[in-house]
Amino acid sequence: MDVPAPWPDGALTVSGTTVSLSYPNALSYVLQASGFLKDAQTQQPLLLYATFFPGSGTTHYTPPDAGSVLGYTLTAADAYIVTAAAVVRGNAPSSEVLLDTGRMPSESALRGIDIAVAVADVGQRD
Question: Is 95 helix (H, G, I), strand (E, B) or coil?
Answer without folding.
Answer: helix
